[in-house]
Amino acid sequence: MNVKRCVVVTGVAGFVGSNLARRLLDRGYTVKGIDNLSAGTLENVDGRVEFHEADIRNPEIYPLFEGADAVFHLAAKTCLPECVNKPLEAASMNVLGTLNVLEAARIADVGKFIYADTSAEYEGIHEFPTREEEIRPIGVYAASKHSGAAFCESYRELHGMNVTIVRYFNMYGPAQDWRRVIPPVMSSFIIRMLQGDRPIIYGTGEKRRDFIYVEDVNDFHLVVLEDQRANAKTYNVGSGMNFSVNEVYQLVEELLKTGLRPLYKPDLPGEAEVTLADITAAKSLGWEPRVTIGEGLRRTIDYLRSRVPKAKVSVPSHT
Ligand SMILES: NC(=O)c1ccc[n+]([C@@H]2O[C@H](COP(=O)([O-])OP(=O)(O)OC[C@H]3O[C@@H](n4cnc5c(N)ncnc54)[C@H](O)[C@@H]3O)[C@@H](O)[C@H]2O)c1
Fold first, then answer.
1. How many CA atoms lie within 13 A of 27 on its CB side?
2. Quick one: which atom of ligand 1 is closest to the CA of 44?
3. Test site for ligand 1: of 60, 74, 221, most ligand atoms within 8 A of the Cβ
4. Whose CA is nearest to atom 11 of ligand 1?
5. 29 with 6: CB under 8 angstroms?
6. pLDDT given at position 310
7. 2 C-alpha to ligand 1 centroid (Å)
8. What spacing in Å lies between the alpha carbon of 221 and ligand 1's midpoint?
9. What spacing in Å lies between the alpha carbon of 313 and ligand 1's midpoint?
10. Strands 163-168 and 112-118
11. What does the pLDDT average to over 21-46?
């Protein structure tokens, strides 16, 4: 008998959740999606998702977990400056929200719980590539995600829940929240350059980031979901390579050929100088990143080209 397995995805209207839901549906899962649309948009949500507009902090979500085989808990307050400006709200969403989703999964006896953690947990660690064992969160966002992860570990020990923690590095790709005041670096460069504006670099541009394309992360999501060896573990999910912000600008410029030079502005405080994932553990499950940064940027440009408001200058179209 071919019974469709059901997966709950919180944060389904956001960048990662919407891409993940599509991938799960294409693989034959049914997806129940939860999002309060505080940051995500309905436009992102695949029509096949059973969508519920709800807040993860509300016990009204509990019945949605009944009969589910797995949960991907992605909903969170993710905008770093907003977390600094509204720390109580960040804690409410990322800590209490996570605890409420854990409760929902525990009560419904869901077999697998996957928590979206962040490389921001490594802010105070200066060993590269960075392994999973040691963390040192500093900022409000990192501390709130860390507290959520601590409850995940607590439920793993206390209730024997099968909780796997995936610690993403800088993900990029289609559906990233490009409407933000300061969008993530790649989307920011592409949007400004498509509109004929100079891309803005905060600081010298020499900070290095481990960027990973969203579909590579989805490959790993499927491994975590389907391979029992991943049960109750913690994994870095990065590319194992890093690029400086200046190098990213060069790569985008090579694809768009705008002739626009970056505009350098004062550094944003509280950001790590370097991130670089040790992905040995993830690779031991047979996974590895497949999308090069050039290809990932090309796909992201194709997506954004059809969505950002009209360019002020003519930019050669990519085929
Ligand atoms: N994108 C990255 O590079 C990255 C890196 C590390 C970790 N993460 C983690 O991955 C997860 C997804 O990130 P993303 O980039 O898709 O972020 P996103 O902001 O695009 O999506 C988060 C979604 O959660 C929803 N949400 C927020 N609070 C909610 C609440 N109280 N109730 C219901 N829904 C709520 C938002 O509306 C949004 O759709 C987050 O947990 C984030 O911490 C992302």
1. 18
2. 39
3. 74
4. 74
5. yes
6. 62
7. 32
8. 15
9. 33
10. parallel
11. 97
* Contact criterion met (CB below 8 Å) for 73 and 20: no
Model confidence pLDDT, tens digit, residues 160-185: 999 999 999 999 999 888 777 778 99
Q: What is the pLDDT of residue 1?
A: 43
How many angstroms separate the alpha carbon of residue 263 from the centre of ligand 1? 29
Decide: helix, strand or coil at residue 229: helix
Question: With pLDDT > 70 as the criterion, what percentage of the chain qualifies?
Answer: 96
Percent residues over pLDDT 90 in the chain: 89
pTM over 0.70, yes/no: yes
Instruction: Please tell me whether residue 208 adopts helix, strand or coil conformation.
Output: strand
Instruction: Tell me how far the alpha carbon of residue 297 is from its chain's centroid.
Output: 16
Q: Which atom of ligand 1 is nearest to the CA of 57?
A: 31
Q: Could you tell me which of 11, 116, 109 has the C-alpha nearest to residue 54?
A: 11
Distance 257 CA to ligand 1 centre (A): 32
CA of 28 to the centre of ligand 1 (A): 24
Residue of 312, 200, 192 lying closest to 262 (CA atoms)? 200
Are the CB atoms for 29 and 48 separated by under 8 Å?
Answer: no
Cα–Cα distance measured from residue 115 to residue 120, given in angstroms and rounded to the nearest whole number = 15
- Ligand 1 pocket, Cβ-based, cut-off 6 angstroms: 11, 13-17, 34-40, 55-57, 74-78, 93, 97, 116, 118, 145, 168, 170-171, 177
Quick: pLDDT tens for 180-195.
Answer: 777 899 999 999 999 9
CA-CA distance, 178 to 186, in Å (whole number)? 10
Q: Which atom of ligand 1 is nearest to the CA of 97?
A: 31
What are the DSSP calls for 26-37, one per residue?
A: HTT-EEEEEE--
Q: How far apart are the first and last CA of the chain?
A: 43
* Continuous H helices in 30-96: 80-85, 87-91
Look at residue 2 in the predicted model and tell me its pLDDT: 54
Backbone angles phi, psi at 209, to 5 degrees: -130, 145
